[in-house]
Please model this.
Amino acid sequence: MHTADGELLTLQEAADRLKVHYMTAYRWVRRGELPAYKAGGRLRIRAGDLDRFVRDREVDVGLPAGEVRRTNWPVHVDRLSALLLDGKGIEASNAVRKIVADGAPAGDVYLRLISPALHRVGDEWAAGRITVAVEHRATEIAHALMARLSDHFRRRGPSRGTALTMTPPGDHHGLAAGMVADFLRAGGYDVHHLGPNVPIEDLGLFLQIVPTDVVCVSMTNAGAGRDLYAAIVEAAGGTGGALVVFGGQGADPNLAEDVGAGHVADLAALNSRLDVLARP
Ligand code: B12
Model:
């Protein structure tokens, strides 16, 4: 779209150019995403601002009004991966904010955007194309994105129980455990998120003091032996204790089953799987 930069448009004209309903354009103005001015009691939009708005959102706008807008995840993953690798935290945050404002559920942002983007970062590291420092920077940006989204996972109403989330000792990959914590909160659990690298002994002491229904362990490093699985179940009170569920890239379903624990691979299915696993 090319217009004279200073040209002033009414909101209806701006909506027409964006091919969206008047109210959609108004919502963007209210949210401060589309800059507008009041002149003669009416909202005016500078054509240059409209151009910039379109450029920023080239994937999202331009669909006929009324059409269901689908989030184009592969395009967003490409963009977010690039921003993470370039260390562009503010731009990454703006991109995620827009995607959510356009209706994408925060849970999808975790599973379909942030996770795959981080996997790409890992691939770059494994191929020797980026340093560990660059990978750390990307992880910190991802952490900040998640912190800003965490309010979306709150749920009011009666508690479904108490859950604990963590990674085992020696596993420093804490982001996924944070996602698990947020999904459990959305599912109605009160969550104690202990984060990464939790010593087993301290887990046991914690669980003796804080009554907990479910312990969700995120395992990223592959190759943990049966002893670790068994020690976690033991710390959770053994067979009569809390339900222990393992998940993550490095979790072994057979070992989980072998020690009497559950295994769930798909985070989106965790809350419903817990209903089944918790049944006597
Ligand atoms: C960031 C990162 C790090 C950071 C972690 C920092 C932090 N605060 O988390 C740091 C720098 C510490 C790190 C260190 C290492 N890392 Co690293 N790291 C990564 C990276 C790039 C992203 C991890 C991540 O957050 N992914 C995003 C999450 C959300 O995705 P996810 O783990 O797949 O989780 C999803 C599902 O699995 C599931 N899920 C996960 N947990 C659970 C639990 C439950 C209950 C359920 C239901 C579901 C579920 O839901 C999630 C959402 O979709 C990955 C690349 C990758 N492929 O993930 C490598 C990666 C995991 N790292 C790897 C390696 C090798 C290492 C090091 C050994 C490197 C080294 N030589 O030092 C060390 C190990 C350190 C340690 N002792 O743990 C390898 C793992 C190989 C393996 N299979 O063991 C990977 C895969 C990189 C690669 N391509 O080779 N790493």
